[in-house]
Amino acid sequence: MSLTLTEKLLQAHIIPDACPDTRFVPGEPIRRGDDIAIRIDQTLTQDATGTMTYLQFETIGVPRVKTELSVSYVDHNTLQTDFKNMDDHRYLQSIAEKYGLYFSRPGNGICHQVHLERFGKPGKTLLGSDSHTPTGGGIGMIAIGAGGLDVAVAMGGGAFHLAMPKVFGVQLTGCLRKGVSAKDIILEVLRRETVKGGVGAVYEYFGSGVETLTVPQRATITNMGAELGATCSVFPSDAKTKTFLASMGRAKDWTKLEADIGAEYDKIIQIDLTKLSALAAQPHSPDAVTAVKNLSGKAVTQVVIGSCTNSSLDDLETVAAIVKGKHIAPGVEAGIAPGSRATLMMAEKAGILGTLIEAGFRILESACGPCIGMGFAPNSEGVSLRTFNRNFKGRSGTADAKVYLVSPETAAASAVTGVFTEAETLSYTDRAYVRSKRVSLLDGNDARLDAKIIKKAAKDEGMLIPPLPPEKAEKIEVIRGPNIKKCPPCPPCASSLKLPVLLKAGDNISTDDIMPAGTKVLPFRSNIPEISKFTFSRIDETFYDRAERMRFAGCFIVAGENYGQGSSREHAALGPMYLGVRAVIVKSFARIHKANLINYGIIPMEFANPADYDIIKQGDTLEIGNIAEALKTGCPFEISINGKKINGTNDLSKRSRAILLSGGLASYTRKGGN
User: Could you tell me if 159 and 257 are in contact, meaning their C-beta atoms sit under 8 angstroms apart?
Assistant: First the structure.
């Protein structure tokens, strides 16, 4: 029987004993929605989520990580205004030394790009405590973002559980025109599918157009596939993949991977690349997509190029080609954050960096930075064009800014004109655009940057510390600063709950709305009592105070569609848990956040009748009388409000229900659950 590439990769990692209720026959499709358990080959963490991940990993009690490879990256909280961030960096380094991880030092680059360059392997599974971990799908990995506790369990040798996803095929034909990029491909998919269209699905790319895309272009698409709500996205591993890995000095890591002939997809999305034009996601959602030509002439005050989505050497090369001999327009501030130290060094050797500086770009640190509100915030009511993956309201650090998501080409063209501009309307020469096809500078065939320089930069070990041998690791003492606190325990599962609705929210509530990022908040990532004070602060500044007045005795949250979209940041579950949130009742959930709620003992349920959302007001008291029964049997939750009975759906897997009955994943794992 013919299988999709996704099915083949997942089946190669199935652990049958960990999902005994699922029928699994090798080579045959697994029923969509069934619980599957897969072996995790690699993990990654970043410092905004990693500290909590490792605090939890320490409680598991294993002397060394059991994965093939695990890496701790520092790329989020590199802005050091006091001791907190550096203390966490020292904690993370000592943890890596003690437990057998690689440690990527501050300044080495953004985790997803560095991992793609240094460690990613076709056919492997990667679990990361960052929602953009699916970047690895650009080289044929099953790369999934998850909460830190799930990653901690995987490092301890545990399986990762998920519902068998649907597989959506994206058939690409034709070739992109100069001035149109991979960013426009994923924006087109978002325009069609929306930010919740991919929940419970993997997007698998195939067709003749795939071979025209470089690995950095593919990685842009898989990275931003997270905005679809998808489990992950994946490309085949082909000749382009082989060339990329060889350029990184890792030719031996390549293997050919593709779907079987005749593979059947749950649906197919067809995109003719020749017909694509430059696109932009308008404020404040990645799926609010329109053509750049519809915005032509609109004034711009800021341009930022970088983030894990568009910060590769090829992205910088294209920007340099467009701005060469020009200068950033008056009234525009422009910055560039190279994705990795290796990219920065290669850009300098190729003359790209000099061109960007001459044009007036500020060179920012190789880190996430502005994408998470860590510096380079827009002006008040500013119009900021960013090559990033998210434009949620306030995420930039400026509450009233208008943030648009665009390609590097559009960003560069708009930076020098001062208004929204399609790059293809400008006269410029891009030496990497050869015979109507994009050619990667990383191939080593360009006179500006030979293969030896690329390999030297890619393999530079200066900022990457390898694992210590076990005999040295066991002597390491973990360094803990005063801001690092133990993760608070989850409350035991109640058989019934009668509690007030402390907050009623609308649709598309993001994890940034639940628990903001930025310079004020993220330094408390390893201190749950302190970071919890920011919970829901962007929606209701009084939430913490009201929960405190109740002595955190317990409450419900009610919301609309796509609750918890965005980051894998488990603090968006930890903060509410600490403040007494016991259940969240919504119209629909984003995947990762729903899993994080379960992991921390908060019951996620959806309205059986979405119209019931309208009858609940903030401050109402709800009673759920059959919690224990529902979690044991899988029957619907029965909710009482003002004498009226409504139902909450119970689509939780048997394992998820067991986790909730145990009082969260940590307790479940300690009791021997798999």
Answer: no
Q: Is residue 212 part of a domain?
A: no
From 383, 404, 432, the end of a domain falls on 432
Could you give the number of structural domains in the chain? 2
Burial (CB < 10 A; 0-12, 13-18, 19+), residue 475, is: exposed
Using an 8 Å Cβ cutoff, are 52 and 152 in contact?
no
Q: Is residue 76 part of a domain?
A: no
Mean pLDDT rounded to a whole number for the chain: 95
Give pLDDT, residue 490.
93
Rounded Cα distance, 543 and 173, in Å: 50
Sequence-distant (6+) residues with CB within 8 A of 242 are 251, 254, 256
- The number of helix segments (H) and strand segments (E) in the chain equals 22, 30
**Beta strands in 129-217, from DSSP E residues, in sequence order:** 142-145, 160-163, 166-173, 201-206
pLDDT of 403 reads 97
Residues 517 and 639 in one domain: yes
For the four alpha carbons of 33, 36, 41 and 45, in that order, the dihedral sign comes to positive
3-state secondary structure of 596: helix
Please identify which residue in the block is written with the tokens 């049997």.
633
CATH of the domain at 596: 3.20.19.10
pLDDT digits (tens, 9 = 90+) for 599-632: 999 999 999 999 999 999 999 999 999 999 999 9
Task: Please name the amino acid found at residue 529.
Answer: P
Please spell the DSSP secondary structure of 523-584, one letter per residue.
GGTT-HHHHGGGTTTTT-TTHHHHHHHTTT--EEEE--SSBTBS---THHHHHHHHTTEEEE
One domain for residues 514 and 589 = yes
- β-pair partners for 383: 402
Of 378, 412, 432, which one is at a domain's C-terminal end?
Answer: 432
Query: Has residue 517 got a pLDDT over 90?
Result: no
Rg (CA), the chain: 24
- Give the domain extent around 407: 278-432
Tokens of residue 514, six digits: 């639940």
| 8-state DSSP, 157 | T
Same domain, 507 and 369: no
Q: Is the peptide bond before 571 cis (omega within 30 degrees of 0)?
A: no
Residue 309 counted as domain residue: yes
**pLDDT at 375 (0 to 100):** 85
Helix (H, G, I), strand (E, B) or coil at 202: strand
- Residues 409, 527 within the same domain: no
Q: Please state, in angstroms and rounded to a whole number, the distance separating the CA atoms of residues 58 and 91.
A: 12
Task: Clarify whether residues 426 and 511 are in a common domain.
Answer: no
How far is 280 from 292, CA to CA, in rounded Å?
6
Q: Are residues 533 and 421 in the same domain?
A: no
Give 404's strand partners.
385
> Both 327 and 419 in a single domain?
yes
DSSP-derived letter for residue 639 is: E
**Half-sphere exposure (Cβ direction) of 557: Cα atoms closer than 13 Å:** 32
Give pLDDT, residue 519: 84
Whether the upstream peptide bond of residue 284 has omega within 30° of 0, thus cis, is yes
The answer to whether 578 and 552 have CB atoms below 8 angstroms apart is yes
Please tell me the predicted confidence (pLDDT) of residue 568.
Answer: 86
What tens digit of pLDDT does each residue of 87-134 get? 999 999 999 999 999 999 999 999 999 999 999 999 999 999 999 999
CATH code, domain with 407: 3.30.499.10
287 and 426 share one domain: yes
Tokens coding 98: 């003690």
Q: How far is it, in rounded angstroms, from Cα 521 to Cα 313?
A: 31
Is residue 70 within 8 Å of residue 157, measured between CB atoms?
no
Is residue 406, in this structure, part of any structural domain at all?
A: yes
Higher pLDDT, 531 or 520: 531
